[in-house]
Specification:
single chain, Methylamine Dehydrogenase, Chain H, 44% strand, mainly beta, 5% helix
Length: 329
Amino acid sequence: MKYSFFLLSLFMASIASAQSVTLLNSGSKASFRGLSVVSDKVVWVSGTGGTVGRSTDGGDSWTWMTVKGFEKMDFRDIEAFDEKTAIIMGIADPAYILKTTDGGQNWNVVFKDTTRGMFLDAMDFANNERGVVIGDPINGKLFIAQTLDGGENWREFKTNTFAVDSGEACFASSGTNIRKLNQSGHIYITGGKASHLFVHNEKREIPFVKGTETAGANSIAFKNGKIFIVVGGDFNKKDNTEKNCFLTIDAGKTWITPETVPHGYRSCVEYLDKESWVCCGLNGVDFSKDGGMNWNWISKDGFHVVRKAKNGKAVFLAGGGGRIAKLSY
């Protein structure tokens, strides 16, 4: 009897520790690549058709808005600070950044660039004031601009040293090819015909497949200042697992291939806690409980982006066709 009870306890513990992805009824058909989880209750998304969504009850219900004058814009990234304040990034033709302070009722243009070839990829904030936006290369260097006042004003780094190779750029796939490393600095990754990590003003190669503009690094996350995980692959080959994930424990000086890699192209990776990580892509979601060395395919629903709450434990995912979900782990 004691032995049976012990086995039952192990079984119940395994169920309790299992990971699952629960689809939510979003009420939208837009494709989402922008996702910002402020807390366990406050979540913002952005995407195609000038669409922005907000939930203040943990995803149970959503308020949808189409930004007036930007009905055809694809807002590929969003940074939210609370239930009233958020910043959205429109990628190109021209490139825009807009800000709301009233929950999305009104949006003010805080950045506009009509430069030929301008294409914004992602933005990230170290705190509520200091943020950085990154874009595809102009004249051989990544476009980088900074704000020091919560996104009200942006200033381009005219003298940045982030030079890239021909055919190398950033993917605007999930808003996570740039991450704050600390309160004063960010790390960047590139993909395409070459993939690099830019950290501590150094350029370090990542061993993704070279030679094609549709492959390479898409997203980076880190546990501390040295342990990073980078995911990607070829978005034209969603089931291909060749060189789609790498780990580093020395800030990119050397790279490790997982024993069990994610099960296809992955556009986003997120660190959760302890040794737990999650990544997602067009053919599903993978979860690792051992620091990224082995990945378990927990859902075959496709998503573009996954983010954990800045102030909380909730984890949300978003993707095409209005798909929004919540991760239990």
